[in-house]
Amino acid sequence: MGQTRSGLMLSDKTLRLVPDERRASARFLALVLSSSHVRSQVDSLLSGSTGQGNISQESVEELRIPDIPVVDQRSLVEVLDELAEAESALEASIAKLRTVRSSVVASVIPRGHELGMLAESTGCATSVRWVPVNEVGSVRMGKQLSPGSRASSEQYPYLRVANVLEERIDYSGVKTMAFSDGERLAYRLEPGDILLNEGQSLELVGRSAIYERGPGEFYFQNTLVRFRAGDGMLSRYAQAVFNCWLNAGVFVQIAKKTTSIAHLGAERFGSLLFPLVPLAEQRRIVDLVDAWDTRIRSSEDELSKLRGLKRGVMDDLLSGRVRVGSAE
């Protein structure tokens, strides 16, 4: 809820609620309507398709909300506003940490030769050799999905673009298709494999994450490119390089764009020049990345606890289990 411009119209899919300020403040109603107690009522009253449910004006009028004196409503809003401010401050702090982390990592990753340019490297590595990506590890496209892949009784889980986010893999919503014995050997994922988005929007092509589940537990589709680090190469260092390239727009420069999707291309990716540094230097960079990730995870854990506290306080206050004046 906030300021709205004059002359704003509502569509037929929008209901307007005008509060009676003698009974309930607008801020209080906004909090109540977003609470789990009321959202569960809304879910039970939805009609229409699964993808886009509808709720009638009559159903909204039947929603049951806590009858709390206006003076207590103001106190409740103040308590939750304080928690919301703390949440916003922590979110801003995490965003800043991520920005600084990206800058620090970029400053220690040698750059300047990825596309074969003759510029001087801007990295801090003491010794670097520029070699094609496909010489420091193996590069492979995943299996193409076909109607026959869904018809077989032997189905195996595979990862696709929707599962590979920036530096993490989402294992929910995993689909299955058929893989022959030979295909299972070729497309199986091993811990430490890096998956990069082959087909994506131009700014997200090349987004990558490290696979850390069990060997052969998952396979991968041709919308992804797999990089498997070779001898003398740390996956975490390679991932840091690839993420640096993503942020610097290196993948955008080599991607081929169709009508709506950009393609990385295994051959184009494999020909990029990779900054191969000694193993000790790789470990130093990985340790630096780990230190920043630990700081960020700590703040994210703190944010998660704060959000849980906020939800709990809201539910307790709205249910009457805790008096407004005693909430902390």
UniProtKB/TrEMBL annotation:
Gene Ontology molecular function: any one: endonuclease activity
Keyword annotations: DNA-binding, Endonuclease, Hydrolase, Nuclease, Restriction system
Keyword Ribosomal protein belongs to the record: no
Enzyme class: hydrolase
InterPro entries: Restrct_endonuc_typeI_TRD, Restrct_endonuc_typeI_TRD_sf, Type-I_RS_S_subunit
E.C. numbers: 3.1.21.-
Name of the protein this chain belongs to: Restriction endonuclease subunit S
Protein origin, superkingdom: Bacteria
Nuclease is among the record's keywords: yes
Family to which the UniProt record says this protein belongs: Belongs to the type-I restriction system S methylase family.
Type I restriction modification DNA specificity domain span: 132-304
